[in-house]
Amino acid sequence: MPTGVALHDVRERLFEAAERILARGGPSALTSRAVTEEAGCAKGVLHRHFADFDAFLAALVGERIDGLAGRRAELRRVAGAGSVTDNLTGALTALFTPVAVAIVGLVTSRDALRARLRSTTPVGIPLLTEATGVIAGYLAAERALGRIAEDAALDVLAPTLIGTGHLLFADRNGAPPEPTAVRRAGHAVLAGALREPGA
Asked: How far apart are CA 190 and CA 5, in angstroms?
């Protein structure tokens, strides 16, 4: 790694390398050595910028969580347009990329990482908890527009949608589930709460 490279560039290079490893081999393939080799960096580069490997992993998860802000804004923008079920199908498909699914596996399999993330995500599973908040916010916007029942229990519907989505996308060796399967599952969860024609 050449000297004088900005910290941000190093971080991004290491994060991108980690995500490629996660997509290929899952959480068990992710080691500090694998990350630096994938990034084409000297072995000590990661430890010059992060206190330890769990600090690096916590920052990686934090980047993914921060990225949910864009998904939240996009869903708020489409509230009231199209079909609630179709909007959620798109959102769940975008949320549960192979890397995101692998990151959830990483978080659940590393106690030290989960403990470190408790400062930002005190309950639940980091990334899934924040994704649940994104879905709940969208459902609240649709409820305000009258497309979701006023008495709908969003605190139950949102985590149910996230849990269903995770099960549909997790541990797949081939292609992701068909959009029709995601739509059918989402519609089943929301059926009693929808107040729009053709939802």
From this structure: 49
Q: How many residues does the chain have?
A: 199
Which has the closest alpha carbon to 161: 182, 146, 179? 182
CB 28 within 8 A of CB 70: no
Q: Return per-residue pLDDT of the chain as tens, 199 residues.
A: 444 445 458 889 999 999 999 988 889 899 999 999 999 988 888 988 899 999 999 999 999 999 998 889 999 999 999 999 999 999 999 999 989 999 999 999 999 898 899 988 888 899 999 999 999 999 999 999 999 999 999 999 999 999 999 999 986 666 788 899 999 999 999 999 998 654 5
170 CB neighbour count, 10 Å cutoff? 13
Residues with Cβ < 8 Å from 39, sequence gap 6 or more?
13, 14, 16, 17, 45
CA gap 96, 68 in Å, rounded: 12
Q: Kindly compute the dihedral angle of the four CA atoms of residues 54, 111, 96, 28, in this order, to the nearest 10 degrees.
A: 70
Q: What CATH code would you report for 7-49?
A: 1.10.10
Q: What is the DSSP string of 128-191?
A: HHHHHHHHHHHHHHHHHTTSB-TT--HHHHHHHHHHHHHHHHTT-SSSPPPHHHHHHHHHHHHT
